[in-house]
């Protein structure tokens, strides 16, 4: 099979062999993408899609301008439509330049695709790119699905992102360029061994090739096997998940924990992803699974991250968004009372002081003008309330008597007047008063 025949097959597989279709060709002027463009131009006119060449001048290297100028001339001579974009220096970030450049590039490709009603964007990623990425991911660790590598085709913007050269090695692309006299630019930064990818390209891949020259094919083969396995796993998980959830999507603990142990984590992870639309790493998931499986008599909760928490109650687990948290008051912080307004003072308590009795249970209370301004604050050592008969009780003693667990005592708030006297230990006891100039109603709502 000649290189052109091989390429023809690949485009046929991507369903792009039609002059009725337009494709955007991402050309950097390096050997890979100049070969891609050349190959596309060799297709018979009856099958060749309409080509739109897209190039980004990143303004990162001295030769950037020469590359853009060359491509402009080439496209003119070849009667090819070219769309150029400049990523101007002022838009370059201080750090993360590669990722920012990539984002600019793909956004530009998406725009060109849209403007030309193109079916696909074609890039010139090849088999060596695959292997280098594979080795980098092996070294860095992460989700095993990442090892399946770059997809030959995937949905992108309003169409597809297609990589027709994935089965070509860099050596094959260079040979083709030499034979067909394809002019291209060599990126000088490719020599920079400070960059991980370049070290892998120059040192690791050649060394592994001496172990077996079929390295590229073997990695591609592993990637194919892995993709098949993961697809089978995903199918199985979908079936199992449907058996362990309620109609509202909550996880049924009894059903789920009787699944074979090796499926519990996978089912839990997929369930959580569907509920939260977020991905959690396996190291984070394992403790969650153990929490879910543990026998727990009462309702319990577990915080997943800043936005989600798990609630387990009556044999089901639900993932729920965390309600906006109320800032916890520091020991000497106070909140001024807003008369006739509900005020959320802790994550579970909303309080109010009203001049008219509210619709919820409330305590009538006498105030005098000198009580104002009233404040909510955490209780402090020395705080005490007035008792019937003229005596006092410290808040500390009150909480002990009411058997408030030590770890919850610090969260108790009190209502104090301008003199700092405690009028109400919220949720526990009111100070005793028989007279005043104003009657108000103290009310508390509990929310979970
Ligand atoms: N400046 C550019 N203008 C147009 N297309 C480009 C440009 N740079 C790269 N491309 C396209 O992207 C392909 C991959 O390029 P390269 O390997 O440099 O990018 P990468 O950042 O490693 O990969 P990716 O773009 O997938 O993240 C090239 O073969 C080419 O098709």
Judged by helices, strands and strand pairing, the structural class is alpha+beta
Distance between the termini: 69 Å
CATH superfamily of the largest domain: HUPs
The share of residues in extended strands comes to 15-25%
Helix count equals 13
Rounded to the nearest angstrom, the radius of gyration is 34 Å
What does the model show?
Residues 374-444 form the Lysidine-tRNA(Ile) synthetase C-terminal domain. It comes from Lactiplantibacillus paraplantarum. Keywords: ATP-binding, Cytoplasm, Ligase, Nucleotide-binding, tRNA processing. It catalyses: cytidine(34) in tRNA(Ile2) + L-lysine + ATP = lysidine(34) in tRNA(Ile2) + AMP + diphosphate + H(+). This protein has 448 residues and is an alpha+beta fold. The chain has 3 domains: 3-220, 3-Layer(aba) Sandwich (Rossmann fold); 244-321; 335-446, no CATH class. Helix content is 38%, strand content 21%. It contains 13 helices and 21 strands. A 6-stranded mixed beta sheet has the order 3-2-1-4-6-5, with helices on both faces. Strands 11-15-18-19-20 form a 5-stranded antiparallel beta sheet, with no helix packed on it. The structure holds adenosine-5'-triphosphate (ATP).
Keywords:
448 residues; alpha+beta; Rossmann fold; 3 domains; binds adenosine-5'-triphosphate
Itemize the secondary structure elements and their pairings.
Blueprint: H1 3-13, E1 22-26, H2 31-42, E2 50-57, H3 64-77, E3 81-86, H4 97-115, E4 120-122, H5 127-140, E5 153-156, E6 159-162, H6 170-180, H7 196-211, H8 215-243, E7 251-252, H9 253-257, H10 261-276, H11 282-293, E8 300-303, E9 308-313, E10 316-321, E11 335-336, E12 342-344, E13 349-354, E14 362-367, E15 375-378, E16 384-386, E17 392-394, H12 395-401, H13 406-409, E18 413-416, E19 422-425, E20 429-430, E21 438-446
Parallel strand pairs: 1-2, 1-4, 2-3, 4-6
Antiparallel strand pairs: 5-6, 7-10, 8-9, 9-10, 11-15, 12-13, 13-21, 14-21, 15-18, 16-17, 18-19, 19-20
GO molecular function: ATP binding; tRNA(Ile)-lysidine synthase activity
EC number: 6.3.4.19
Pfam families: ATP_bind_3, TilS_C
